[in-house]
Amino acid sequence: MKITKPFLLWWIQVVTISFASFFIYTFNWFEALYDADQTKISFLIIIVFIGSTLTVGVLSYKNLSNRNVLSNYVWFSSETMVTLGLIGTVAGFLLMLSSAFDNLDVKNVENVQEVITDMSLGMSTALCTTLVGLVSSVLTKIQMVILENNNHE
Predict the structure, then answer these.
(1) What confidence tens digit (pLDDT) does each residue in 28-50 have?
(2) Model confidence over 10-28: pLDDT tens digits?
(3) For a tag site, which of 52, 82, 96, 108 has the least CB within 10 Å?
(4) At residue 76, what are phi and psi to the nearest 5 degrees?
């Protein structure tokens, strides 16, 4: 089968994402993400992103009869990544606020420090899931726009 322009463009994106992932791994950002996200929704988003990227690769390589159906699933997964990020945001805020003020004694400095630490874990979950969801969704949408604009090749 002939290698097409959409497949080469997809391959460039995959190599770029892999290169960035290598640096993220090198600087232990995946470990930091694992520690910061109490719900682990960020890793579910990453799995959905990997699946979507592989599907775009198949779509760009093969001329499939059900191309529109698979494209719709990829667009849906892109929106799902944003939605999962927002669910993680809400979950993070719930973690942050659920028990933060129950045993708060403002006269006890150690108690206030514990409350702030608990709140920061919830906030880190909220921010991490939002960031991973948005970045993954944008990268998937870029892949799909490039694919759809070059599918006449």
Answers:
(1) 999 999 998 989 999 999 999 99
(2) 999 999 999 999 999 999 9
(3) 108
(4) -60, -40
Alpha helices in the chain (DSSP H): 5-26, 29-36, 41-61, 67-98, 109-149
Tokens 């919830």: give the residue.
122
Max CA pair span of the chain: 73
- Distance between start and end Cα atoms, the chain: 14
39 DSSP assignment:
S
The distance of Cα 30 from the centroid of its chain, to the nearest Å, equals 12
Distance CA 99, CA 133 (A): 26
Please say whether the beta carbons of 53 and 14 come within 8 A.
yes
**147: CB partners within 8 A, 6+ apart:** 6, 9, 10, 56, 59, 60, 71
Length of the chain (residues): 153
Kindly report whether the global pTM for this prediction surpasses the value 0.70.
yes
